[in-house]
Amino acid sequence: METGKSFKRNKFAFGMGTIGRDMVYSMVSMYLIVFITEVVGVTDSVLITITTIMMLARVFDAFNDPIMGVIVDNTRSRYGKYKPWMTIGVVLSAMVAVLLFMDMDLTGSSYIAYFTVFYLLWGISWTMNDISYWSMMPSLSYDQKEREEIGALARIFANIGLFVVVASVIPVTNLLGEQAGSLKKGFLFYTVILVIIMLVFQMVTVFFVKEPPVIGGKDQPKTTLKGMIRALTQNDQLLVTAVAMALFMIGYVTTTSFGVYYFKYVFLNENMYSIFAIILGVSQILALLAFPWFSKRHPRKTLYKSAIILIVIGYLIFFFSPANMIFIGAAGILLFVGQAFIQLLMLVFLADTIEYGHLKLGRRNESVTFAIQPFINKMGAAVANGIVGYTLVISGINSLGEGELLSERGLLIMKSAMMLLPLLLIVVSFVIYRKKYIISEEKYEEIIESLIRREEG
To answer: Where are the transmembrane segments (predicted)?
Structure first.
């Protein structure tokens, strides 16, 4: 376990790597569909095709994640097993992200073909970086509280990146578009800026994080595909965490993906979205900063339950509130404070299943285990993109002409897809966790003691 200056250096160098990563990921996962529908402009049939391709591509890429986990776990190099793939992945995904927002002046089937190729490449290249980056985290400490510190700081930096994009994407792309002569170029130049930031901060992690030795890490045999399947299917706590995380992420991403459309077609003022995003971003970052204080005073189960209560109240206020920023802002604060706590809790739950699996199955698989996180994020995003894309067609939003308003029926369809469905999924996720997850703080200490005895014996 790292202590003192070494731990602090690792904590900050690792956490800073998420800033630009989450900027670019947010741009692609949340605003590529906005770019396609609101900037490029496509027909309903093309939008349905692209939405389906996005879903299938995410599913395909998600199933590649455990394979990438095996590759990372089996990597032996002078630079460690994480940093080589982290570097290759960030460079490739940076290039592909730019190509996704490039104005190729294509339409119809030509645009669909172009989009399909580079969207698939985006997923594959991002997987290289994402799995190697996050699977490094549990190797930096065995102490649960230190892991929470590392995870909290990483999530804070990630949310800074996320909400900088959410708050700035509309005004900055409009400004750049005015200067460059088109909104398409505005989106492209904005993406280039985000990509440069991503590359800079990822290099901070690559050059300044020093990995400490791990228990049982010496001369561990390479993981086979059979071993990968065993690690994923026979670790019951990993499976419970995966299901709970997947349901939560589908709900969370669905809600956030509707944001621009909600303010544009309900409030009829998309510029309000940036103000709303700043409020939410500050709330979520403050929640993550406060998490270690709450964690020292309350068990994780209590924190999870409290976060779920905040989310339920927030969704109900959001759904029934009038078009008033005070009500919407209050609902958003409750939602995103609760979601910040749950995102961090699920990250450390996942990290703790590594030692549980190590004890139960006899080998340590950080990257295979943490491949579940991007797998879940992609599956969640695939389902969420499908919900959003099909809702835009069913509600009539995509076919609205200039100056046309959304009907009451269309409004109800969008609000239900944005709030009621996600709320149901998040509550079910909590029920699964409460009934099936057994790695309490006390249980984790027993696991670590057993692993140390096994190594010494």
So the answer is: 84-102, 108-129, 150-172, 187-209, 238-263, 275-295, 302-320, 326-354, 375-400, 412-433
CATH number at residue 262: 1.20.1250.20
Report the 10 Å Cβ neighbour count for 48: 16
Task: Answer whether residue 111 is part of any domain.
Answer: yes
The CB density around residue 32, as the number of other CB atoms within 10 Å, is: 21
Nearby residues of 71 by Cβ (< 8 Å), 6 or more positions away: 85, 367
- How many domains does the chain contain in total? 1
- Name the band, by pLDDT with cuts 50, 70 and 90, for residue 1: very low
User: CA-CA distance, 34 to 261, in Å (whole number)?
Assistant: 9
Q: Which two tokens stand for residue 219?
A: 């001369």
Domain span at residue 298 reads 4-206+224-456
Classify residue 217: in a domain, yes or no: no
Distances, alpha carbon 354 to alpha carbons 114, 215, 231, 365, 443, in Å? 39, 12, 9, 7, 13
Kindly report the backbone phi and psi dihedral angles of residue 131, in degrees, each rounded to the nearest multiple of 5, phi listed first: -70, -45
Give the tens place of pLDDT for each residue, 103-125.
777 777 888 898 889 999 998 89
Please tell me the pTM assigned to this model.
Answer: 0.69
**DSSP state for residue 2 in the 8-state scheme:** -
Residue 418 lies in a domain: yes
CA atoms within 13 A on the CB side of 68: 31
